[in-house]
Amino acid sequence: MNSSVRSTARTLGAAVRTLVVATIVLGVGYPLVITGIGQIAFPHQANGSVVRTTSGTVVGSALLAQGFTDAQGQPLPRYFQPRPSASGWDPMRSGGSNLGPENPRLVADIGARQAEVARFNGVAESAVPPDAVTASGSGLDPDISPASAQMQIARVARARGMDEAEVGRIVAEHTSGRLLGFLGEPTVNVLELNLALDQRQG
Q: Whole-model pTM?
């Protein structure tokens, strides 16, 4: 009986020591090492890809879309507009509408958005790119397509009293190509683009 108790005690002791070591190594050491590597090698990404003004004020994250609207929720003409969002660009309610592509409500919503976007930008409905009327799965996609940005140039230039060519150059400066040259599609980060416009105008 005593030998059985001693054996059990040794087994429990080994299990407890293993738990303590594993907790220290995997629960404390590993996270600290990975955090340190992230802070040294990729500080911008590791800290949330925060976007700041030239004065250092945080205006958002390059990874999260936000609305550029007035107090009534109407889009501001002087700013490029992001994709629609089923969550209202609220990161605490991230998600899509979960409506299928043939759902009558979604079809009606897209039709209404297409008409509104065309009117707001002064273009034909046929000139409205798909991403300007369809929400992303997360509702927080920070990017728009170059076609969507091009559609908005004239309206933004008029609202800001800027030359269209100058606004177009700023758009080009903030257009990212395909990852590694062949993955994904070119994109334009809306927050960074609008911040660049504000900074250009002082």
A: 0.81
